[in-house]
Design goal:
InterPro entries: AtHST-like, UbiA_prenyltransferase, UbiA_sf. By secondary structure, this protein is mainly α. It folds into three domains: 84 residues, no CATH class; 169 residues, Orthogonal Bundle (Tetracycline Repressor, domain 2); 127 residues. 72% of the residues lie in helices and 0% in strands.
């Protein structure tokens, strides 16, 4: 082995290279002296003398040869020397090769984090509600024109920007609570830093107001402004505000935005700004506002049921904390069933046959499905309660599919 390695050794060009060469040579001597030959003990004494001489010249040798009397071998030392002596290129120093898959995975992870940060069930609800209410302003087939789609797009984009501001601010204010209730959210899990969250929230609020101002629709701008004020008051942790701590104020915030502002303001945006017509409060619009008031109260109450643990720890006095999960659960189910009953009567009173059929059958089906799912919920399982909460949002979406048929 030595005969193969020695020709590749570089010549010692300075004092710093000498210790390495001598140590290797000395290691070989120790190994030979301790393992071979009849005069092993004499050889050991000779090597010991040489070691003392080398130790005097290169003190660092003392750390490598403390096991001389125990027959210590220097295979490890030889291995180190060979690795240092070889001149093969080091892969660690080379720049990492371009890997499209890793870049694609990084993009996917970023999009997934933003998707969770934006709370997609609220985004879908906001978009569907605006489209549905905008259809209430349609009086004839010719109203479905590029002007209609432009007006709807302006409203939806501006509202979605404000929606991301509101849900993002709520996460910034609830990082510690979400670590208990919703650890999968980007801020709670650590995927987003607090600074990243602030940047996203501030950017989307500015974009929302900028778009509302550029469009020039006062109903749209006021819808954005009132949503901004109520969303901020609901979440931000400053004196007098953070209304989510108080059950009634929290419910009123959600009801005002989801039931009143979305229905009235976005209808008036289409009616007065897009179609240039005088404001009117039609029968379908009044129904949509009343029905969604019920639904918004249910969402405000039910959203706290799976979050009871974190709310108790941080002193959030929700109805669930005060009344208990089971009681609030059945209050929510009962309110929705009452709302569906009112919708059935509303459909039956419609002068249009097609409206009677669609709204009557549609609400009857939704009421039945709600009752069936409610009886199968395990109130001791957070996963089961959360799943039912998402089901309520699906009923929310379905209602906005029926509202345009109310006449």
């Amino acid at each position: 082995m030595d005969s193969l390695l020695l020709p590749s050794f570089p010549k010692p060009s300075s004092l710093t290279t000498a210790p390495h060469f001598s140590r290797t040579k000395y290691c070989a001597a120790i190994y030979h002296a301790s393992s071979y030959g009849p005069n092993a003990s004499w050889n050991k004494r000779k090597v010991q003398k040489e070691h003392n001489f080398l130790k005097f010249r290169w003190p660092s040798l003392n750390h490598h040869f403390k096991g001389i009397e125990r027959g210590y071998t220097c295979q490890k030392c030889n291995t180190k020397f060979v690795v240092k002596a070889t001149s093969e290129p080091s892969f660690e120093s080379e720049p990492q090769a371009f890997d499209p898959k890793s870049i694609l995975d990084s993009v996917k992870n970023s999009l997934d984090a933003f998707y969770r940060f934006s709370r997609p069930h609220t985004v879908i609800g906001t978009a569907l509600s605006i489209i549905s209410v905008s259809l209430l302003a349609v009086e004839k087939i010719s109203d479905i024109s590029p002007l209609f789609f432009t007006g709807v797009l302006e409203a939806v984009v501006a509202a979605l920007f404000m929606n991301i501001y509101i849900v993002g601010l709520n996460q910034l204010s609830d990082v510690e609570i979400d670590k208990i209730n919703k650890p999968y959210l980007p801020l709670a899990s650590g995927e987003y830093s607090f600074g990243t969250g602030v940047t996203i929230v501030a950017s989307f609020s500015i974009l929302s107001f900028w778009l509302g101002w550029i469009v020039g629709s006062w109903p749209l701008f006021w819808a954005l402004f009132v949503s901004f004020v109520l969303g901020t008051a609901y979440s931000i942790n400053v004196p007098v505000l953070r209304w989510k701590r108080f059950a009634v104020l929290a419910a009123m915030c959600i009801l005002a935005v989801r039931a009143v502002i979305v229905q009235l303001a976005f209808f008036l945006h289409m009616q007065t700004h897009v179609y240039k017509r005088p404001p009117v409060f039609s029968r379908p619009l009044i129904f949509a506002t009343a029905f969604m008031s019920f639904f918004s109260v249910v969402i405000a109450l039910f959203k706290d049921i799976p979050d009871i643990e974190g709310d108790k720890v941080f002193g959030i006095q929700s109805f669930t904390v005060r009344l208990g999960q089971e009681r609030v659960f059945w209050i929510c189910v009962s309110l929705l069933e009452i709302a569906y009953g009112v919708a059935l009567m509303m459909g039956a009173a419609s002068p249009c046959l097609w409206s009677k059929i669609v709204t009557g059958v549609g609400h009857a089906v939704l009421a039945s499905v709600l009752w069936y799912h409610a009886k199968s919920v395990d109130l001791k399982s957070k996963a089961s309660i959360t799943s039912f909460y998402m089901f309520i949002w699906k009923l929310f979406y379905a209602e906005y599919l029926l509202i345009p048929f109310v006449r």
